[in-house]
């Protein structure tokens, strides 16, 4: 579980650097990626997540967040508009 904790903290910290709205879609839930609590209750390995990023620095946010998800072995895809 500690590995998951590290993933949650790093994802939230990375997301918080950006002005863009960053939301993770999983099943029927939409979670603000900047919310550590929201991530803790949602983020588990083996699930597929969809990342929705909108805002002035969306491209950079997508790039950095995809790297963090991949680093922690989490499967995420970018939502298409």
UniProtKB/TrEMBL annotation:
Supply the InterPro entries for this chain: HPr-like, HPr-like_sf
Q: Which residues form the HPr domain?
A: 10-70
Against SUPFAM superfamilies, the record matches this protein to: HPr-like
Q: Name one Pfam family in it.
A: PTS-HPr
Q: What is this protein called?
A: HPr family phosphocarrier protein
Q: What is the originating organism of this protein?
A: Paenibacillus polygoni
